[in-house]
């Protein structure tokens, strides 16, 4: 895998929130660390009426806002020179002609057939017209030079349910081969999440008990202190389950539950994740009523863009089960929410307690493994040890591994830098394949449908408290 070949990144929706907060800072990180190809440029392709100079000013403002207001001026200007802008109605095929001309001009100027990476940083409703226009304009066709490629980066959410996701996926398959399609799941690019594979399969300590015989339960928490803020209209159409449950939580579940892949080859890792997800047991209507919970924080309906009688959840909890011999009977408890009292993004694996045990008469302690993404990036193992002294008095102790100090973590920048770098060099390990996508929606769809019919009441909770998770 190499990143030296000339590459053109075309960003659809270049003035949107994802690009401002995540993509531009991440590209700057790669630029500053010399990880971009020597010949590299970015074409912003969006509806906003503006010139290249205005777009570059916008990029500078986003750097000052999301990276630092005091960056080195010469370096920033060199970075800005990588950017240009083409205005277009994204659903109008004729507007793609100027884009084709610009791509041809760059190829001619560079005297090569550059790689083309098309990044769809737009809502799912625009995927269909963009893909149609790309097809009509023939921009996805390779220019034929050996070693050059065309790829597409697709942002989440891909679809709003299984049917729309499969329609988008089929359309992608008409234009691209699977090895050209990069479905973003930025949680897989988090440093501690990537460490799960190493923790499980490069160590021999826990894998022998990593099953239904050794594990009592698995809990996966994504508790955020932030609210919906300025995303009211989008969030009200999606909700927490589809925003983070259908993707982030299920991918974390897959990493915890997957069998050891045959190698670290991208296809082997993705197939191992997909195998777990296809064995997620769909919940029946009775199980949805008893094993799921949803709630909304007070004040949510006052946010601009949110309906006055909105039934959208800002917190949910689901008890899932994997129908595989290794995991049969082990509950996987998934929960996520906005405006929760304490920031906590972690996985808790509780091991089964041996019976009989050499335990004190006043209670039993269970061993737990905690894998934390936030607020700390850490792995903690809880165990029991004897207290110093003449008696066999026991106490709970913890082995801690802190990956790095909290202040060294740049939110989103590191993940999206990894996403962009891997897309350029052709490593699909941290991207979702088509089987994973379908399996995740197959599990989530019945829950969304049942909730929409009122089978599970929408509870309310006070924001900035732990009221919802304690209910």
UniProtKB/TrEMBL annotation:
<dbReference type="Pfam" id="PF00479">
    <property type="entry name" value="G6PD_N"/>
</dbReference>
<dbReference type="GO" id="GO:0050661">
    <property type="term" value="F:NADP binding"/>
</dbReference>
<dbReference type="InterPro" id="IPR001282">
    <property type="entry name" value="G6P_DH"/>
</dbReference>
<feature type="binding site">
    <location>
        <position position="338"/>
    </location>
    <ligand>
        <name>substrate</name>
    </ligand>
</feature>
<dbReference type="GO" id="GO:0004345">
    <property type="term" value="F:glucose-6-phosphate dehydrogenase activity"/>
</dbReference>
<feature type="binding site">
    <location>
        <position position="243"/>
    </location>
    <ligand>
        <name>substrate</name>
    </ligand>
</feature>
<keyword id="KW-0119">Carbohydrate metabolism</keyword>
<feature type="binding site">
    <location>
        <begin position="89"/>
        <end position="90"/>
    </location>
    <ligand>
        <name>NADP(+)</name>
    </ligand>
</feature>
<dbReference type="GO" id="GO:0009051">
    <property type="term" value="P:pentose-phosphate shunt, oxidative branch"/>
</dbReference>
<dbReference type="GO" id="GO:0006006">
    <property type="term" value="P:glucose metabolic process"/>
</dbReference>
<feature type="domain" description="Glucose-6-phosphate dehydrogenase NAD-binding">
    <location>
        <begin position="10"/>
        <end position="195"/>
    </location>
</feature>
<comment type="function">
    <text>Catalyzes the oxidation of glucose 6-phosphate to 6-phosphogluconolactone.</text>
</comment>
<dbReference type="InterPro" id="IPR036291">
    <property type="entry name" value="NAD(P)-bd_dom_sf"/>
</dbReference>
<feature type="binding site">
    <location>
        <position position="190"/>
    </location>
    <ligand>
        <name>substrate</name>
    </ligand>
</feature>
<comment type="similarity">
    <text>Belongs to the glucose-6-phosphate dehydrogenase family.</text>
</comment>
<dbReference type="GO" id="GO:0005829">
    <property type="term" value="C:cytosol"/>
</dbReference>
<dbReference type="InterPro" id="IPR022675">
    <property type="entry name" value="G6P_DH_C"/>
</dbReference>
<feature type="domain" description="Glucose-6-phosphate dehydrogenase C-terminal">
    <location>
        <begin position="197"/>
        <end position="466"/>
    </location>
</feature>
<dbReference type="InterPro" id="IPR022674">
    <property type="entry name" value="G6P_DH_NAD-bd"/>
</dbReference>
<feature type="binding site">
    <location>
        <position position="224"/>
    </location>
    <ligand>
        <name>substrate</name>
    </ligand>
</feature>
<feature type="binding site">
    <location>
        <position position="47"/>
    </location>
    <ligand>
        <name>NADP(+)</name>
    </ligand>
</feature>
<comment type="pathway">
    <text>Carbohydrate degradation; pentose phosphate pathway; D-ribulose 5-phosphate from D-glucose 6-phosphate (oxidative stage): step 1/3.</text>
</comment>
<keyword id="KW-0313">Glucose metabolism</keyword>
<feature type="binding site">
    <location>
        <position position="156"/>
    </location>
    <ligand>
        <name>NADP(+)</name>
    </ligand>
</feature>
<dbReference type="Pfam" id="PF02781">
    <property type="entry name" value="G6PD_C"/>
</dbReference>
<feature type="binding site">
    <location>
        <position position="186"/>
    </location>
    <ligand>
        <name>substrate</name>
    </ligand>
</feature>
<keyword id="KW-0560">Oxidoreductase</keyword>
<protein>
    <recommendedName>
        <fullName>Glucose-6-phosphate 1-dehydrogenase</fullName>
        <ecNumber>1.1.1.49</ecNumber>
    </recommendedName>
</protein>
<keyword id="KW-0521">NADP</keyword>
<feature type="active site" description="Proton acceptor">
    <location>
        <position position="248"/>
    </location>
</feature>
């Amino acid at each position: 895998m190499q990143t030296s070949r000339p590459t053109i990144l075309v960003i659809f929706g270049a003035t949107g929130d994802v690009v401002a907060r995540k993509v531009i800072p991440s590209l700057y990180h790669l630029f500053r660390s010399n990880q971009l190809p020597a010949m590299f440029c970015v074409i912003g392709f969006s509806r906003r009426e503006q010139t290249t100079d205005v777009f570059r000013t916008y990029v500078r403002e986003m750097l000052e806002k999301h990276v630092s207001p005091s960056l080195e001026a010469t370096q920033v200007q060199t970075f800005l020179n990588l950017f240009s802008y083409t205005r277009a109605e994204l659903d109008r095929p004729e507007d793609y002609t100027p884009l084709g001309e610009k791509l041809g001009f760059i190829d001619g100027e560079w005297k090569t057939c550059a790689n083309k990476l098309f990044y769809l940083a737009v809502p799912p409703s625009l995927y269909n017209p963009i893909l149609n226009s790309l097809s009509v304009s023939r921009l996805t066709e390779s220019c034929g030079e050996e070693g050059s490629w065309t790829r597409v980066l697709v942002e989440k959410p891909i679809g709003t349910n299984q049917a729309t996701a499969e329609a988008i996926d089929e359309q992608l398959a008409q234009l691209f081969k699977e090895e050209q399609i990069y479905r973003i799941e930025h949680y897989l690019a988090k440093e501690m999440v990537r460490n799960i594979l190493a923790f499980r399969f490069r160590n021999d300590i826990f894998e022998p008990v990593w099953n239904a015989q050794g594990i009592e339960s698995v809990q996966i928490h994504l508790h955020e202190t932030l609210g919906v803020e300025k995303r009211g209209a989008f969030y009200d159409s999606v909700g927490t389950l589809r925003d983070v449950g259908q993707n982030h939580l299920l991918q974390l579940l897959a990493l915890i539950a997957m069998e050891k892949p045959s190698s670290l080859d991208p296809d082997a890792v993705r197939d191992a994740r997909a195998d777990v997800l296809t064995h997620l047991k769909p919940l029946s209507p009775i199980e949805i009523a008893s094993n799921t919970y949803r709630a909304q924080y007070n004040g949510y309906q006052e946010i601009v863009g949110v309906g006055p009688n909105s039934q959208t959840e800002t917190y949910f909890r689901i008890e899932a089960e994997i129908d595989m011999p290794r995991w049969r009977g082990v509950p996987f408890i998934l929960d996520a929410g906005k405006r929760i009292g304490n920031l906590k993004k972690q996985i808790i694996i509780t091991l089964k307690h041996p019976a009989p045990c050499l335990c004190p008469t006043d209670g039993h302690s269970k061993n737990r493994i905690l894998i934390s993404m936030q607020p700390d990036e850490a792995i903690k193992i809880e165990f029991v040890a004897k207290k110093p002294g003449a008696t066999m008095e026991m106490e709970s102790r913890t082995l801690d591994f802190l990956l790095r100090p909290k202040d060294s973590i740049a939110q989103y920048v590191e993940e999206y830098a990894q996403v962009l770098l891997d897309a350029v060099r052709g490593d699909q390990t941290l991207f979702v394949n088509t089987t994973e996508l379908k399996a995740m929606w197959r599990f989530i769809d019945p829950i969304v449908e049942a909730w929409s019919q009122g089978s599970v009441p929408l509870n309310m909770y006070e924001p900035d408290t732990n009221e919802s998770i304690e209910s």
